Fold this protein.
Amino acid sequence: MEPTQPPAPAHHARRTGRLVVLISGTGSNLAALLAAQQDPAYPARVAGVVSDRADAGGLEHARRAGVPTAVVAPADFADRAAWDRGMAEAIAVFTPDLVVSAGFMRILGAPVLERWPDRVVNTHPALLPSFPGAHAVRDALAYGAKVTGSTLHVVDAGTDTGPVIAQVAVPVEPGEDEAALHERIKVAERAMLVEWVGRIAAGGLSVDGRVVTVG
């Protein structure tokens, strides 16, 4: 009988998924990703955070975690095209595998999307293609929707038009106001983001038309 090799010892080696997270506000999604990476088995790590606002509260999450940050404020650039280039340059400093737009309130231009094709993802507080744009929660309530939620999608040149990666549904409670509904959506969104960014970091992401495959 041929001798058999002993099984390889178990280990926790992970595939490196370097993230750059883009924020404009409090950074609750960023905080969720930073918490997730405390687990050595989580396959992604936040390498840098870029904001369009120097007063974005989420920058403090990054600083406390020892993650470097950059601010690319539109007022510091001559025009939109220069800002787009500045964003691409700031992101590139951190050599990301994936760019995560998490509460980032500006449309990303060609310099970013062409440099990281199908590698920029965004969260949106509605079940796309319903209620795109900046007031998704308000629009869902005004429409009388009974179910809304959050979408993680690949960013393309349109506004919330990219291929869908994942969605989570959130029922609308009777008499609920915009702030309360948005807060419940954010809770579901954070869990979805952490799960799917981990999946992408571990297994990769491919896009064929509007079909997204992870792993």
The radius of gyration is 19 Å. DSSP finds six helices and nine strands in the chain. The first strand starts at residue 17 and ends at 23. Strands lie at 17-23, 44-51, 69-71, 98-101, 120-124, 147-154, 164-171, 205-208, 211-214.
